[in-house]
User: Which sequence fits this backbone?
């Protein structure tokens, strides 16, 4: 019913629909219920006008569960697309729905459970009641029903205070959740992603079930990865031996990504469980001994993190690590190894030799490694200020400052250099400072996001681990968001990692160079820079400071403001388009210009020149426009000065401008000077001085003009607008049915304007009378006033 | 809710395409297919992709891709479950699910789809309920050369002791003979996962079982299904680690189970009987899961020894621990070998028949196929390996684990049994065929070395 989705059909649809909603046959009623949702999709108003929503709400009390389910589904959809409260679940509705729940088809159960999950129970008693009614759904064979029931229960559990009840519920939820893992791999994946969220909130539910998350050899890789993640979350002192045994086994499997993740998992367990750290390390050492290249590299990366977590505890293993030095070829592993050498330089006898071997290839290394090499060498030098390291540091600093294009590297090197040359002791304090201890990050989602995701258990958003509005776009809202909008960094890396199985993503504690954004470095300096903890802070602070000073000053100049009138269209400028206008900002006059390069070549060397004009306007400085690539545009504010080369004759508004660049001929165009740009901030007059000036000026200086087309609708808004342009309000009086306003304004060289505006608010027609010592300015003034009033 | 539903062939052709809400552009099928092909190369799949605000879900059934698209934040399990269910309903109606049968019956298929989903909302997927709304007759496709679908399909392989026609019979079409054969199938299918440690202990063991039913009884009479009386559910407060205590007592203890919605459990607590009115078509009566210790059907013993420079010997022994009147078929053992292995020569026990050995050079894997494996027997394989390079570490670290797949008909490890199957029908002459079948399959059966 209602499948012809055309607006025209709707009026013919209404009457039959009305009948069908009350039909005797439940099949007809259930189809009609969905039809209301269809109709709402085509014409929402019609549905509301014809009262279909009420009929739909009546159907909730229908005696056929299928009809109830469809009515709920339809209402839920309508609610989602509408702003007002249409479908609110009250206590009576709740009871009805819970009754219908037992008899529905499995799909209906999902609709009802999802709708009910929005219901907020009023107290713990009610919550317990609801949970009791929903719990049998956990036994259902349909995974969707089980997950929706889990969502519902988790939500109500927040309200339940009795620990006994909560413990009991946890016990009841565990087996069904585990059973989900016997389903098809796709469903397993969905279940695992959901479990991942659930254990973050309530780890007790599955604390005893870690065995079921052990990977089976025929699990698809995406299931294995998820299982690993959950195993890390569930690992505890009690089960760590078992878990480690599994991880060790996984680390010898074939799939490289999986192996890497398994190795990282061992490291994360070591960081998470202090008492197990030693066992974890011994497992890692065993793995290193197998000498499979990628295992070794991964192990070194995690050992670096372990060192950061437990400083000065496990250096005894460094010797073993050094054995595999030459096999390292991945930047991250190399950087980690170099960091370890630098950090423990005083305990490694041949630290200088080891570092030297890396130095030979310094220019070819990726930036990540270069940065670590630089820091490690400085550390080595500070710890062992002997001849060898001294030479090394010369080489490194030279390499890092002179021979590189990488600003990060160069800046860091300069800071070290300066530190070392001014005060080596201070350098020691900075470079060898105590580093903050990192912590386990296996519960990475922040709690507000987690709350939102938990409320969305069993939906797509719980699989993506993103809030729904991040990826849901209804067909009607045309703007399609890109996927990665506004994401907390860690979360985004996590997400892309799990989906793309890129094992070197951010699942492990972030190490310095895997965090590409400067922003991330600023917000989280400690984990972001493992090696020279203090220095990059300083560095980023400096950068941050600079930015803060420069950017805001630039910002209004470059971006804001209304669109400028086009003075040189692209057609007559051979592709160069110039828009410009005189503006007043902070008491100064600027010429605001927008250049748009629609040519095929880069344009540069822009210059500007103004012809003589009535006010002697001229540029106060050179035009600052960067070279414009094809398709690029630039906005600039050119400061202006007055009375430079004033033209003679009666004042007019003509401003002739010439612009040239290195590639094109000189372009001439005309602009119009609007007098209100010149209104100065000191134009306000006292009432008394206004009256005096008014009287002192001869009547011949009074000029009058009418603007029949202009209407003042709100006195206040108009006053505000005029005041913003430095036309100051002085007084107001009523004359018959007219309002009379008095204003003052002043232009440079102290020329005052006394203004009287007469109008009937809300009616067209404004009369403007002015008195000024320079009546020849009057036409210009009226033009300005007209613009201001019209705006 | 779901916006579109479509079925793609392996080549990416649109066999069935139904748009329910008109919110997703028509090209979605093509976008999806490209995405899937791209995955295949990458070796990763299934995380529901989101392309331009459209979420795609799919399941693969007998080589066909069943896909649903949506724009809203739906429950993925719901959609995936639905896709499976649609495949099953179509199969119930067409008898055979294949590209060919879908094309020939497209009118029926669209009719079904319109009843199953309305405006993206699932209405019903019960074959039984749908019967009253569906009027098209299926065109039966010759099924002989087609691969059957569903868990019961395993009864088709190997021994021909089951009537094959039942598997490919449509629920609505009548038998060619005109008279419908009264029969009911109850299959107890258990998939077992076992991991042995290197010293032969069981590290983890799990049974995923399902009781599958397919009924061809006229008039849908009520059926009572009795299970073991000593069956109990839930391990109480025990943790997974101390389940050994329950072993040997003879009781069957399920960790968890769930039932089909048609099952009534009125007397389940008392005498472990399930009462149900079986809907037409194939459906799982009960799914269960247990981690109670059981006797693994096969015991694997693997020995690797270095035999001189650049040489090693692998001895693989497998013993069947089930009674000798039962035979396992399609037994395959696989074992990854060290990556510098260049050659492997095999030596089977004398007089061995129906066994095949292979060394896959590309992924360095040893394969050993046994067509039949009689209970109580032990088979041995010796393999001599030659390496191209000195091994870094212990050879054991680089080889293994041994994984095994098998199917054992008429045997179930959990000892869960259907004690009787009662069909409530007045007439005493009524005696339909009842088939109760058991099968055990390996899911993940791994021995570490």
Assistant:
């Amino acid at each position: 019913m209602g499948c012809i989705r055309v607006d025209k059909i709707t009026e013919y649809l209404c009457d039959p629909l009305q009948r069908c909603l009350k039909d005797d046959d439940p099949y007809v009623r259930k189809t009609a219920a969905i039809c209301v949702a269809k109709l709402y999709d085509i014409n929402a108003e019609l549905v509301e006008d014809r009262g279909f929503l009420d009929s739909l709400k009546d159907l909730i009390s229908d005696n056929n569960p299928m009809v109830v389910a469809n009515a709920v589904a339809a209402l839920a959809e309508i609610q989602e697309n509408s702003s007002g409260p249409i479908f609110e679940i009250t206590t009576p509705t709740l009871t009805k729905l819970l009754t219908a729940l037992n008899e529905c088809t499995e799909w209906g159960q999902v609709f009802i459970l999802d709708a009910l999950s929005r219901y907020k129970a009023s107290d713990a008693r009610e919550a317990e009641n609801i949970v009791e009614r929903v719990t049998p759904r956990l036994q259902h064979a349909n995974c969707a029903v089980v997950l929706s029931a889990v969502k519902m229960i988790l939500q109500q559990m927040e309200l339940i205070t009795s620990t006994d009840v909560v413990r009991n519920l946890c016990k009841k939820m565990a087996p069904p959740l585990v059973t989900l893992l016997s389903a098809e791999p796709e469903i397993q994946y969905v279940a695992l992603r959901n479990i991942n969220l659930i254990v973050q909130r309530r780890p007790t539910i599955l604390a005893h079930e870690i065995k079921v998350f052990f990977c089976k050899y025929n699990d698809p890789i995406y299931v294995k990865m998820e299982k690993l993640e959950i195993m890390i979350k569930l690992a505890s002192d009690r089960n760590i031996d078992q878990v480690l045994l599994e991880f060790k086994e996984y680390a010898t499997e074939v799939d490289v990504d999986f192996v890497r993740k398994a190795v990282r998992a061992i490291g994360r367990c070591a960081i998470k469980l202090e008492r197990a750290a030693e066992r974890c390390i011994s497992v890692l050492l065993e793995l290193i001994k197998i000498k499979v290249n990628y295992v070794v590299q991964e192990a070194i990366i995690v050992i670096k993190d372990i060192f950061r977590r437990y400083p000065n505890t496990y250096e005894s293993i460094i010797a073993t690590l050094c054995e595999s030095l030459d096999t390292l070829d991945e930047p991250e592993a190399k950087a980690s190894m170099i960091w370890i050498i630098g950090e423990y330089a005083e305990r490694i006898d041949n630290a200088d030799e080891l570092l030297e071997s890396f130095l030979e290839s310094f220019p070819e290394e990726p930036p990540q490694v270069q940065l670590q090499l630089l820091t490690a060498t400085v550390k080595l030098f500070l710890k062992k200020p002997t001849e060898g390291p001294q030479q090394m540091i010369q080489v490194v600093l030279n390499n890092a400052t002179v021979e590189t294009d990488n600003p990060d590297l160069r800046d860091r090197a300069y800071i070290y250099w300066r530190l070392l040359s001014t005060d080596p002791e201070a350098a020691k304090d900075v470079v060898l400072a105590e580093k903050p201890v990192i912590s386990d990050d296996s519960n990475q989602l922040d709690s507000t996001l987690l709350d939102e995701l938990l409320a969305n258990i069993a939906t797509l958003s719980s699989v993506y681990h993103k809030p729904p509005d991040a990826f849901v776009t209804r067909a009607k809202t045309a703007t399609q968001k890109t996927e990665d909008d506004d994401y907390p960094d860690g979360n985004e890396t996590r997400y892309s990692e799990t989906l793309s199985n890129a094992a070197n993503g951010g699942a492990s504690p972030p190490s310095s160079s895997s965090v590409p954004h400067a922003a991330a470095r600023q917000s989280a300096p400690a984990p972001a820079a493992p090696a020279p903890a203090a220095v990059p802070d300083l560095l980023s602070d400096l950068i941050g400071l600079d930015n803060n000073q420069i950017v805001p000053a630039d910002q209004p100049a470059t971006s804001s403001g209304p669109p400028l009138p086009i003075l040189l269209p692209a057609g007559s400028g051979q592709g160069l388009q110039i828009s410009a206008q005189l503006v007043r900002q902070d008491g100064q006059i600027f010429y605001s210009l927008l250049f748009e390069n629609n040519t095929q070549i880069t344009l540069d060397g822009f210059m500007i020149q103004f012809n003589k004009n009535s006010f002697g306007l001229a540029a106060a400085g050179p035009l600052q426009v960067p070279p414009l690539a094809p398709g690029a545009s630039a906005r600039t504010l050119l400061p202006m000065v007055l009375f430079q080369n004033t033209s003679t004759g009666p004042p007019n508004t003509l401003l002739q401008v010439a612009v040239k660049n290195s590639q094109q001929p000189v372009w001439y165009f005309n602009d119009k000077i609007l007098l209100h740009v010149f209104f100065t901030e000191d134009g306000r007059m006292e009432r008394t001085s206004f009256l005096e000036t008014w009287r002192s000026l001869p009547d011949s200086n009074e000029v009058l003009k009418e603007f029949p087309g202009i209407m003042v609708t709100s006195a206040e808004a108009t006053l505000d607008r005029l005041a913003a342009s430095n036309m100051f309000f002085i007084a107001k009086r009523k004359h018959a049915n007219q309002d009379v306003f008095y204003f003052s304004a002043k232009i440079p060289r102290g020329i005052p304007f006394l203004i009287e505006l007469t109008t009937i608010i809300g009616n067209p027609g404004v009369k403007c009378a002015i008195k000024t010592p320079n009546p020849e300015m009057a036409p210009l003034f009226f033009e300005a006033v007209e613009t201001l009033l019209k705006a | 809710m779901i916006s579109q539903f479509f079925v793609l062939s392996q080549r990416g052709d649109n066999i069935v395409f139904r748009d329910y809400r008109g919110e997703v552009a028509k090209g979605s099928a093509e976008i999806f297919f490209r995405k899937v092909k791209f995955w295949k190369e990458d070796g990763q799949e299934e995380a529901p992709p989101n392309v331009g605000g459209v979420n795609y879900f799919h399941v693969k059934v007998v080589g066909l891709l069943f896909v649903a698209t949506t724009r809203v934040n739906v429950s993925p399990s719901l959609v995936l479950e639905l896709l499976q269910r649609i495949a099953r309903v179509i199969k119930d109606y067409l008898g055979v699910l294949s590209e060919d049968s879908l094309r020939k019956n497209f009118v029926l298929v669209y009719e079904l789809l319109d009843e199953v989903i309305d405006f993206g909302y699932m209405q019903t997927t019960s074959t039984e309920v749908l019967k009253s709304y569906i009027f098209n007759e299926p065109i039966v496709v010759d099924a002989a050369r087609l691969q059957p679908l569903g868990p019961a399909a395993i009864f088709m392989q190997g021994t021909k002791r089951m009537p094959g026609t039942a598997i490919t019979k449509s629920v609505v079409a009548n038998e060619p003979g005109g008279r419908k054969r009264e029969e009911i199938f109850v299959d107890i299918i258990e998939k077992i996962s076992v991991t042995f440690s290197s010293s032969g202990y069981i590290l983890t063991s799990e049974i995923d079982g399902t009781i599958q039913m397919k009924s061809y009884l006229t008039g849908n009479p009520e059926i009572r299904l009795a299970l073991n009386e000593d069956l109990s559910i839930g391990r109480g407060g025990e943790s997974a680690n101390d389940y050994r205590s329950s072993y040997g007592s003879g009781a069957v203890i399920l960790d968890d189970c769930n039932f089909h919605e048609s099952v009534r459990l009125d007397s389940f607590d008392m005498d472990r009987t399930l009462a149900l009115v079986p809907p037409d078509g194939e459906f799982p009566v009960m799914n269960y899961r247990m981690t109670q210790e059981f006797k693994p059907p096969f015991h694997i013993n693997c020995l690797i020894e270095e035999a001189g420079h650049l040489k090693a010997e692998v001895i693989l022994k497998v013993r069947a621990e089930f009674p000798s009147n039962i035979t396992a078929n399609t037994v395959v053992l696989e074992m990854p070998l060290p990556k510098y292995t260049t050659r492997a020569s095999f030596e089977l026990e004398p007089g061995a028949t129906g066994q095949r050995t292979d060394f896959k050079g590309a992924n360095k894997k040893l394969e050993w196929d046994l067509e039949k494996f009689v209970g109580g027997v032990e088979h041995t394989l010796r393999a001599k390996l030659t390496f191209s390079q000195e091994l870094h570490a212990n050879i054991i670290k680089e080889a293994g684990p041994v994984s095994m797949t098998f199917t054992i008909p008429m045997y179930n490890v959990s000892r869960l049994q259907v004690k009787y199957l009662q069909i409530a029908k007045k007439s005493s002459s009524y005696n339909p065929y009842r088939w109760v079948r058991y099968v055990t399959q390996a899911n993940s059966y791994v021995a570490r070395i």
Observations:
- Residues 144-150, 156-166, 174-179, 237-248 of chain B have pLDDT under 50 and may be disordered.
- Chain B has seven helices and 26 strands.
- The CA atoms of residues 6 and 17 of chain B lie 4 Å apart.
- Chain B has three domains: 2-133, 182-295+411-447, 298-409.
